[in-house]
Amino acid sequence: MEDPSIIRLTFFIGAFLLFAVWEWRKPRKQLTQKKWIRWVNNLGLIFSNSAMIAVVMPILAFQAAQIADARSLGFFNVVDLPFWITVLISVLLLDMAIYIQHLVFHRVPLLWRLHRVHHADQDIDLTTGSRFHPIEIILSVWIKIGVVMLLGAPALAVVIFEVVLNVSAMFNHSNARMPLTLDKYLRKVIVTPDMHRVHHSIVIRETHSNFGFFLSIWDRLFKTYISQPTGGHDGCVIGVPQFREGREQILDKMLTQPFRN
């Protein structure tokens, strides 16, 4: 397989437009901040992070999978399994790895300082799904590379996983209203917007719960699942206590948040 950048970009644009229209037509929660200010700054951070990765990263997860395959590195390159089973298991394990990484970034104080930039958004919508500090992005890419090489995950599995992760991050951060019955059944398998909104609550116990990005099974399996926010979704306050001023949604403030109390 050649460079899958065009595949990822196509899914990103398609999903972005889909969820943008959905949350515009049927918003789940009234916004508290000016949307255009948040979007300009969130998207500015997203695009600058993408440019930085292109410049500073020697390889990405896809190239790591190709290197592992060429050099027979990783578990799946020394174990003889049908290709489709290898792809399926690789996607599942990569999703579990993202869950564990997310949990660790909450548990380790230094890493939480980086990750709270994501949580400092005082509203959540599809742009929040990719709002991360540049240092966290770089660390995440290296972690993903390490997991891919350790597993010996096929390049196809990496492409599938990255597309699914990207789309699901926009989906579960979207401010879109979903029928409660549909949410009830969907969240048994995947992370829904209502399920993930609990994770962005200002209530500390709720902030440190619901770490899954795609599959919801990891939160249930590792006992980090909370069904609903304490005050209900309409009363759920989004963000972190340290950064409540509207100015904190501006790009320069987001970049310095890990270094301020």
TrEMBL record:
<feature type="transmembrane region" description="Helical">
    <location>
        <begin position="81"/>
        <end position="105"/>
    </location>
</feature>
<dbReference type="InterPro" id="IPR050307">
    <property type="entry name" value="Sterol_Desaturase_Related"/>
</dbReference>
<dbReference type="InterPro" id="IPR006694">
    <property type="entry name" value="Fatty_acid_hydroxylase"/>
</dbReference>
<feature type="transmembrane region" description="Helical">
    <location>
        <begin position="36"/>
        <end position="61"/>
    </location>
</feature>
<keyword id="KW-0812">Transmembrane</keyword>
<keyword id="KW-0472">Membrane</keyword>
<feature type="transmembrane region" description="Helical">
    <location>
        <begin position="6"/>
        <end position="24"/>
    </location>
</feature>
<keyword id="KW-1133">Transmembrane helix</keyword>
<feature type="transmembrane region" description="Helical">
    <location>
        <begin position="141"/>
        <end position="165"/>
    </location>
</feature>
<protein>
    <submittedName>
        <fullName>Sterol desaturase family protein</fullName>
    </submittedName>
</protein>
<dbReference type="Pfam" id="PF04116">
    <property type="entry name" value="FA_hydroxylase"/>
</dbReference>
<feature type="domain" description="Fatty acid hydroxylase">
    <location>
        <begin position="88"/>
        <end position="224"/>
    </location>
</feature>
